[in-house]
Amino acid sequence: MLHHYNTVKGYGEHEINIERSRFITYVTRAETEEEAQEFITSIKKKHHDANHNCSAYMIGENNLIQKANDDGEPSGTAGVPMLEVLKKRDLKDTVVVVTRYFGGIKLGAGGLIRAYGRATSEGLNATGIVERSLMRVMKTKIDYTWLGKVENEVRSSHYLLKEIHYLESVEVEVYVEEASKEQFVNWMTELTNGQGIIHEGNVEYLEQDSNTGL
Question: Residue 46, Cβ neighbours under 10 Å: how many?
Answer without folding.
Answer: 14
